[in-house]
Design goal:
Length: 140
Amino acid sequence: MTASAHKIFICYGEEEHVDQVDLVQQLNSASGFAYTNTGSCSGEGIDRESLERNILRQIEDAAAVVVPSGMFLTYGFSRWVRFQVAHAKAFKRPIVVLTPHGSVGVPRYLKDYADKTLVWNGNPKWDASDLVDWIRALPN
């Protein structure tokens, strides 16, 4: 990690979600942008309490939390996204919610917690510049 890398927490569930994978690919290809994702799905084989403690440490280490809202609408991810978003607020971490382009909208729960909402189409050709600019504007 370089000195200028931004530490962000990208919400995740018990397994990888396509939105999470696409977002990481897009951020990795953003020109001149260095970041570290403090969120890690490596909870395989550990109990729920330990996994929750790991998530809390990961959120605490981040400057901001990024929520691809499509994950919230997927069965099994809602519970973990709720947990992560609630604790991000408790740690006073800014939250950006990425709403799928053409979607019926961001779930009310995420709207209530979001500091910023950006339209994201989950497409590899999506321009991540709005998200990158938002992250760059955060205090380190």
